[in-house]
Structure formats: structure tokens, C-alpha cells
Write a structure and sequence with these properties.
With 876 residues, this protein is an alpha+beta fold. 46% of the residues lie in helices and 8% in strands. It is built from 34 helices and 15 strands. The strands form six sheets. Strands 1-4-5-3-2 form a five-stranded mixed β-sheet, with helices on one face. It has a two-stranded antiparallel sheet with strand order 6-7. A two-stranded antiparallel ribbon has the order 8-13. Strand 10 and strand 11 (554-556) form a beta hairpin. The longest helix has 29 residues, at 476-504. It comes from Melanocharis versteri (Fan-tailed berrypecker).
Length: 876
């Protein structure tokens, strides 16, 4: 049988072989061409049943090839017998049959399944004679029927219940039709009988096919015994009918000559393998990518490059390197806000489907995955902002700002799959601005408010003048450099956070068993009890520490007897700990690293589980979609089971500013001189460039052609939303937000759509991204209510979330071509993969391009690590 590749019944007769590329003898194609030239051909036959088709085929033979009535009757009876299909059995069915059939092997005394092929008269002989049956395009192989001693029933005109329940139909693409090829040896014929039939419309032919499908094409070749010739001709016909170009010819052919021309075109593309250079019994595995039918018609097949979805793209159709995007999203209209209005008109018709398209289980896994990543990111940047600004902006402000800005952006933006977050350059600017305000006695939040208002104004001006059209000049070099840098920052920060655990939870590297008696930790309350004599005359003398007994009684301890105090009691009494083992926490750092690495490896393994060979496709897809959530749950379970006090996620539990000295509204006047509102325009220009480059480079990466987005981009609308959000976040003293490259890429990867059905041997086709707004809205809604979810979130270890960060960084890094070219630097030329660009570009130029890109990436990294990090988007 064929769906796209050939499958054969193995010699044992119990299972189908692995799908493989059919290897045909060249002579069989010539014999097929002769059969179609001389045989009967019925195009657009009007029939509704297989019996009617056979009757018309036998009655409309030309006079020179007409069969005698007796032979026609025997031939009709033979063709109308029920084919012997090879059933697909489950493991339980095979085990049941194994238990019921003790003579499964080739033991002496056991009856053979296929007795010797001795001729026997009548009906039984006819049943053995039909050797093969195929079904093409949605092909089926009707299994060998040689030597079957059991009587054969007549073909049913209605589908059997086995056909209707056959799970193999899930592999069939919607709207497919069956094509049947019946070839075999018939001893009562003196010359071959050949018929090629195309029905006027697809009809169900009862129980002829393995599953119930409409049929349109039939090919019959019966004749006297002639070794394997008929079998190979049938394979050649089935292979032709599965070829997409020949299918078009077969559908549109009006005369025999049209069909012959289709075979000639097939032969023109044929590639012959020399017989002594390969094993004909070897099965060629299906390739990972195939040329599209349109590209097969081009003159130069080498001038093709594999595209992201497995199709081939000709060099002439590729956009030029300097202008990779020439869509109407980036064309200038020449009118104020012309690009913005075009974005709104483009996105408005899709707004309703942006919510209905999210009704899929995959979106639930995406929400949980991105929510945990966003929470971790908000806590990380919130903590760093708190350190940089004396808690004028802290973790709570980061939570509320992320929730508000992200929700509004997902509701109104042009590309709602984008995730907003604080970024490194913005953090550097906040640190510099706070230091400048402290040094010049300026109010930081008021100064920041005016900068934010100016940035919003400049952003609106950029939208009005359609400055986003400059995006078309961003090349692969720029995109890959920016994406690689952000990915490396994620990887570096996750490792840096893990290494910092060794300071908070030190490992006792010099531990010696003999020195165990020297380890001690005591509570020192000397500072509290030294002035006890003077405190006797006051009412504010601190109480003596107490020990609580199980029976509910308490005993006050004298200052010299403090061994019964716990660490918490000691610190509550105002004391401090003394001793070499006070800061030692056993195994926390090592267990944290195990959780960190385990989460990363578990995420990667479950993501790759989709392409594994184990379990049904539905189970693999479900596990892959929920990979990150399953990894987090597994790691949290291990953490609970071990019972160690690993560092946990800290979520604010109260809605009040981190710094009590500030409020929720920042007033524009009062604390700073009046001229600050004008001077603020100078640093605002720098921030505007930073925001514009950061936002638009991320938008370019997210709207690449290989993602197959159907609803269009919204570069102008996205920039307008970010600019207006600058006003709100500046007035409320919340952090500034811009598109986060790595989290947005992770969001899109978690919403990948693949074909629900794929032929055996064919990789699932990438269909695009599930474009909708609901996942982003759900993520940022959960961010807003995270303050009330603190009792649950506090059980998630931080090393687990750092592992998720590492997974996102590595995944984003592996998605760019730069990493493939870096691997080429380390490979000898003879071991390098057959990449398309290596066929057209000299290897030394590829290496030169890669080295220059790596040097620029290193320069950006050095720049990012200094005070000049604020200008790094400009350097990109």
C-alpha cells in the first residue's frame, strides 16, 4: 500500500514494513507504458459500484482483444472476490492470538499458512491467482492471496464494519481518495488483460479498500504466469499514482496521449541507480524534506533551498538580503499615521478569531509555561530594580506593571503573541538615572516621569511618520546577533543565579569526620544582657528567653544557659549566632543544582518526545505540549520528597509600595525645578532609540516568514501601544516595558501547529502558529492575581525556575542559523551536513561570515557588561 511512501507486508504476514521510498526496475516502467498504450482505457466512466465497473470494462473491450463469454465470466468472478486485507492489530490482539495459536512457528506437524502453489481447479484457484491489490494516493495493498485453501467470499457492496473501525484512517489526509491497482497471474488467460479506469466522480466501492474511502482510479493487469513481471508493473503504476505531478495529469487527461505524456515527464525526472553500487533489497528511508511540485518543474533542480517547513525555495524567489520583508506591513503610505491605520484595518477582521482560535488544549499548556517564566522574570528584574533604585521600584511594582502593561498590550496590539517585560538596557538606564538624581539632589520618580512622557511623545511621532518601515533594512546578521545576545543573557543569568546559591548556602568542602567535635553553633545574647542591672529600674527590660515544654509549661532561662534556643528563637530575642557551623546548610546547593539541571534536561527530553517512536501520536503530542509543566511538577515533587529547605519563589503578599516613602501616583511638579521637564527630553531621545530598536528587532524576529503567520504583523500599532504604556507606567512609578525576545519566542514555540494527519514515513507538516490573544491575556491576568496565590507559588523552588530560564535560552539559541555555522567551524569538511547554502557559497566565506558575527557578538557582550550598555540596541 501507498499513502505517500511504499509499505509492504513482511514475510511473516503479520505486520507492515516501515515506510520507504519505492525502488522500481526501469524495465517495469517501460512495460507499464506499453500496457497503457495497448490496453483498454476508460476515462470519466459513469458507474456507482465495483460490479458495474467490471461489467462495463469487460463489455467495452475492442474487437481484436475481446474475450470469450466464458472467460469474461470467470474473470468477472475473480475480480469480484473479496480482497484479503492485511489488518493492523494492536499489541493485545497479537498477544491473544499468540496464546490461542500454539503452532505459530514453523514447527513440524503444524499446518502451513501458505500451502504449495499447486494448481487446483475452479474457484479456489481463482482466489489464489489474484496476487496483489494496491491502493494509491491513499493506497492500499490487498495482501497476497496465493495458496489460500479457505473459500473466498464475494466483494461486499457496502463497507464492512472492520473498514469503518480501522484506525489507519487517521493517517489519511482529509478529502483523500483511493486508487486501486489489481495485478496477478491467471492461468486461464492466454494474453494479458489490461484496463485503466477513471471514474467521473469518486464513489465508495464497498469492501474493496482497507478503509472506507471514495475511489476514482483503477488499474487492472491480469495475464498468464510470467514470474514477477506483473507485480513490478503494479508497483510502478501505484508509484505513478502517488506522484503529485502525475496525479494532475491523470485527473485532467482527455485522451490516451495525455497519459503517455505524463509518463514521459515522470521518466524525464527519473534517476537511475547502478545495479552494482547498491543493494536492491535495501529500503530507502523517507527524506526529511521533499521538493514541492512547483519547484520540480524548474529547469535547475540544484537551485533550490530547503525552507523551514520542509518545502524547497528557489534562489530566484528569495528576497534580497537587504530587503527580506517587502510585505505591505512595511510599505510607506506617505500620510500621517498611514501605516497605523493600515495596521488597524488589517488586524480588525481577525479580532474575533483571536479569541475563538485559543479554544485548544495546547493554549492551556502555553499559559502555564509562559506564566511561570514571566513570574520568574518579574521577580528577577524586580529584585535588581529594587537594588538599583533603593526600592523605589521593587518586586511588587514589577508584578503589577507586568500584569497591567502586558494585559493592555495583548488586548490592543498588532502582534499579541509578543510578551512584554523589563529588559537589561532599561535596567541599566534606571540605575544610571537614579545615581544621577541622587548626585544632583533631584527627585528620581518625578525626573523619570518627565523622561517617560517625552519618550511617549517621540514614540507617537515615530508612529505618525511611519519610521517602522526602517525594519525592512534589518538583515539576518542583525536579527541573529540580537537574538543570540538575549539568549546568552538568559543562559548566563540562570547560571549566575545558581552559582550565587553557594554564597547563601555554602558547601562544607573541607569537612573531615575527625573534626566533627569542633563544629558548633551557639546563641549569643551578651549584647542584650550586659546592661541588665541598669534595666532593672526600667519597665522596658527585655524578657528572659523561655523554653516551651510539650505539656504547655515554659521555663525562663538564665543568660548563661542558652543551649535550648532554636535559631529562630535566638534571632527573635535579639541575639546572634556564633560558631563554625551556623551558616552551614547540608546539601542545599548540590540539590539545587540537581533540580536545576534535572528541570532543564527533563524539559528538553519531553519536548523531543513528540518525534520519538514510543506511544501513539496523540500521547506524544500531549506530553510535548505540556513538557515544561510536567518538568516543573516532577522537580517540585522531588523537592518535596527530599524535604530540604531549598530557596523558594518569593511573591509579595501585600499591595503596598516597596518603599514606604513613595505613593502610587507620581506628581509632575513640586519636588524638582521647573526646567527639569525640558531637560528631560535629552535622555528621553536615548531611551526612545533604545525602546524603538528593542521593540522592532523583536517584532522582526517574531514575524519571520518561517513561522507562517496568517494574520499579519502590526509594527506601527505595537510601537504605539508601547509608547502609550510609557505614560501610564511613568505616572504610577512602575517599570518600563518592551518586547522580551526570548520569552516571546518561547510563547510562539509553545503554540506551534502541526498537521493532525501525516502519512507513514512523512514528518508532520508545520502549519504555523496558533495566533490568538487569549494566552497572553490569561498569563498577565494570572500575574495580577499572583499576590493572592502566594501560598501555592511559595512551594516552587527557584532552581527549578532557573532551569526553565536555561531551557528558554538554549531553545532560542538553537533556533538561529548562527549555531549551525558555529558547529561547521568545528567539523572537518567531509563530515559536514549537506546544507543548501554550502552548495552555493564557498566554505571559507561561510566561516568568515560566522567569525565576523561572533566577534560582533563578543563586542556587544562586553558593551552590555559596562555602563555603556544603554546604547547596545543602537550598536546592534
Amino acid at each position: 500500500r501507498w499513502i505517500k511512501f511504499e509499505e509492504k507486508v513482511e514475510d511473516g504476514g503479520e505486520r507492515w514494513s516501515a515506510p520507504h521510498v519505492p525502488a522500481l526496475p526501469l524495465h517495469s516502467l517501460f512495460q507499464l507504458r506499453t500496457c497503457l498504450q495497448k490496453g483498454m482505457m476508460l476515462l470519466d466512466l459513469d458507474a456507482s459500484s465495483f460490479k458495474e465497473i467490471i461489467d462495463k470494462a469487460l463489455s467495452e473491450q475492442p474487437e481484436e482483444a475481446e474475450l470469450q463469454p466464458a472467460l469474461r465470466e470467470r474473470l468477472a468472478n475473480l475480480l469480484l472476490l473479496q480482497p484479503q486485507h492485511q489488518p493492523t492489530k494492536s499489541l493485545l490482539q497479537l498477544l491473544a492470538e499468540l496464546g490461542l495459536s500454539p503452532c505459530r512457528g514453523r514447527k513440524p506437524g503444524c499446518p502451513t499458512r501458505h500451502p504449495p502453489a499447486a494448481s487446483s481447479p475452479g474457484r479456489t484457484h481463482a482466489g489464489r491467482s489474484l496476487a496483489h491489490g494496491f491502493c494509491c494516493f491513499l493506497p492500499f495493498f490487498a495482501g497476497k492471496a496465493k495458496g489460500r485453501s479457505e473459500p473466498r467470499t464475494q466483494l461486499s457492496e457496502t463497507p464492512l464494519k472492520e473498514q469503518l473501525r480501522n484506525r489507519f484512517k487517521k493517517k489519511v489526509p482529509p478529502g483523500a481518495e483511493a486508487a486501486h491497482v489489481a495485478v496477478g497471474e491467471v492461468e486461464f488467460l492466454e494474453k494479458p488483460f489490461t484496463a485503466f479506469i477513471r471514474l467521473r466522480r469518486g464513489v465508495s466501492l464497498g469492501s474493496l479498500a482497507e478503509v472506507s474511502l471514495p475511489s476514482r482510479f483503477l488499474f487492472i493487469l491480469l495475464g498468464p504466469p510470467k514470474a514477477k513481471a506483473y507485480h513490478e508493473v503494479g508497483r510502478a503504476m501505484a508509484t505513478l499514482l502517488t506522484d503529485e505531478l502525475f496525479q494532475r495529469v491523470a485527473w485532467q487527461a482527455e485522451h490516451r496521449e495525455d497519459l503517455m505524456a505524463g509518463i514521459e515527464a515522470f521518466l524525464d525526472e527519473l534517476i537511475v541507480l547502478p545495479p552494482g553500487k547498491w543493494d536492491p533489497s535495501a529500503r530507502i528511508p523517507p527524506p526529511s524534506c521533499l521538493p514541492s511540485p512547483r519547484r520540480r518543474t524548474t529547469a535547475d533542480p540544484l537551485d533550490q533551498q530547503p525552507h523551514g517547513n520542509g518545502a524547497m525555495t528557489a534562489a530566484g524567489d528569495r528576497a534580497s538580503p537587504g530587503h527580506p520583508r517587502s510585505g505591505e506591513e512595511l510599505e510607506r503610505t506617505g500620510r500621517l499615521f498611514g501605516g497605523l491605520l493600515r495596521d488597524i484595518r488589517r488586524k480588525a477582521p481577525w479580532y474575533g478569531s483571536d479569541f475563538s482560535d485559543a479554544l485548544h488544549p495546547q493554549c492551556l499548556s502555553a499559559v502555564l509555561y509562559i506564566y511561570l517564566a514571566t513570574v520568574t522574570n518579574a521577580i528577577t528584574f524586580g529584585g535588581m530594580l529594587g537594588d538599583a533604585t533603593a526600592n523605589m521600584q521593587g518586586v511588587l511594582e514589577s508584578f503589577l506593571g507586568t500584569a497591567f502593561a502586558g494585559f493592555i498590550f495583548c488586548l490592543f496590539s498588532g502582534q499579541p503573541l509578543t510578551i512584554l517585560s523589563s529588559t537589561g538596557p532599561v535596567l541599566v538606564f534606571e540605575r544610571l538615572l537614579f545615581s544621577f538624581s541622587q548626585d544632583h539632589s533631584l527627585d528620581y520618580l518625578e525626573f523619570r516621569l518627565w523622561i517617560g512622557l517625552w519618550v511617549a511623545f517621540f514614540g507617537v511621532v515615530l508612529v505618525a511618520t511611519e519610521a517602522s518601515h526602517l525594519v525592512r533594512y534589518f538583515t539576518r546578521f542583525t536579527e541573529e546577533g540580537f537574538c543570540a545576545l538575549i539568549s546568552l543573557i538568559f543562559i548566563y543569568d540562570s547560571l549566575k543565579k545558581m552559582l550565587s546559591l553557594a554564597d547563601a548556602f555554602p558547601i562544607n568542602w573541607q569537612y573531615r569526620l575527625d573534626n566533627v567535635t569542633s563544629y558548633s553553633c551557639t546563641c549569643n545574647l551578651s549584647r542584650l544582657f550586659n546592661p541588665i542591672l541598669t534595666c532593672l529600674t526600667t519597665l522596658h527590660c527585655p524578657p528572659l528567653p523561655s523554653v516551651y515544654h510539650p505539656d504547655g509549661t515554659t521555663t525562663n532561662l538564665p543568660p548563661c544557659h542558652l543551649a535550648g534556643l532554636s535559631r529562630t528563637q535566638c534571632l527573635d530575642q535579639g541575639g546572634h549566632l556564633l560558631g563554625t557551623s551556623c551558616q552551614y546548610v547540608p546539601d542545599v546547593t548540590l540539590i539545587s543544582f540537581l533540580l536545576f539541571g534535572g528541570t532543564f534536561l527533563f524539559c528538553a527530553a519531553l519536548k523531543r518526545f513528540r518525534s520519538s517512536r514510543y506511544f501513539p501520536v496523540g500521547v506524544r503530542k500531549l506530553v510535548s505540549d505540556f513538557a515544561v509543566i510536567l518538568a516543573i511538577l516532577a522537580s517540585c515533587t522531588v523537592d518535596v520528597f527530599l524535604g530540604l529547605e531549598t530557596p523558594k519563589l518569593l511573591v509579595p503578599s501585600e499591595l503596598k509600595p516597596t518603599n514606604p516613602a513613595r505613593g502610587w501616583i507620581v506628581f509632575p511638579f513640586g519636588a524638582n525645578p521647573w526646567w527639569v521637564c525640558l531637560v528631560s527630553a535629552v535622555p528621553a531621545v536615548l531611551v526612545t532609540i533604545l525602546i524603538f530598536m528593542d521593540q522592532q528587532i523583536t517584532a522582526v524576529i517574531l514575524n519571520r516568514r518561517e513561522y507562517k503567520l496568517q494574520k499579519g504583523a502590526g509594527f506601527h500599532l505595537d510601537l504605539l501601544c508601547v509608547s502609550l504604556l510609557m505614560v501610564v507606567t511613568s505616572v504610577t512609578g512602575l517599570p518600563w516595558y518592551v518586547s522580551a525576545t526570548v520569552i516571546s519566542l518561547a510563547h510562539m514555540e509553545s503554540l506551534r501547529k502541526e498537521s493532525a494527519t501525516s502519512a507513514p514515513g512523512e514528518h508532520p507538516e508545520f502549519l504555523g502558529i496558533r495566533e490568538q490573544r487569549l494566552t497572553g491575556l490569561a498569563v498577565f491576568t494570572l500575574m495580577g492575581v499572583s499576590v493572592f496565590m502566594a501560598p501555592v507559588l511559595k512551594h516552587i523552588p527557584m532552581p527549578v525556575l532557573y532551569g526553565v530560564f536555561l531551557h528558554m535560552g538554549v531553545t532560542a539559541l538553537n533556533s538561529i542559523q548562527l549555531m549551525d555555522r558555529v558547529r561547521l567551524l568545528l567539523m572537518p569538511a567531509k563530515h559536514q551536513p549537506d546544507l543548501a547554502y554550502l552548495r552555493h557559497v564557498p566554505l571559507r566565506r561561510v566561516h568568515l561570515f560566522t567569525v565576523v558575527q561572533l566577534l560582533c557578538l563578543a563586542l556587544l557582550w562586553v558593551l552590555k557588561s559596562t555602563v555603556a550598555a544603554i546604547i547596545f540596541p543602537v550598536m546592534v
